[in-house]
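haha ok so turns out i had the wrong file open the whole time. this is the CORRECT one, sorry everyone. sequence first:
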Amino acid sequence: MTGNLTLAVVVGALFAFGTSLVLQRSLTRVLLGLVLLGHAANLLVLTVAGRSGPPPFTTPTDGRPAAADPLPQAMALTGIVISMAVTCFLLTLAYRSWQLTGSDEVQDDVEDQRVARDRDGGQTDPSADDPGPGGVDSSGDGGSGDGGSGDGGHELPEHDELAVLPGSGR
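then structure:
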């Protein structure tokens, strides 16, 4: 079986670009990366499957198999459905993040910062207490993450505000 070099390069490029986009902090880029990874996986499955066989209800005369293998097409269809569901979920997640924070960038998690600080023996870096450029630490505890927002100066809405959608009139 001979492979197609062009398809191999395209699959490799799709996987490379998709992986680099998934590693970004913006949810929009993560979404585009996962879409590229889904396309790359489908193209890889169909490329590795080889040439298609004849239709199922014909008799081959040139020594090819009796019918086409439906498994690669079924796997590609399943991959399309799964990538569509993941795309819808990430679109919803990115839109909700944009509604709440005005940005789709994923912020550092307060618990991850606390674990990293505890792993270093509790010694904090003086720059770790700085909330960032233009940020104000609203908790008054020096940015320790024990009750503040810990999101770099962005105020997160309270639970009552989460239930009210902008423009909904509620």
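Residues 5-51+70-101 form a domain with the Helix Hairpins fold (CATH 1.10.287).
again sry for the mixup
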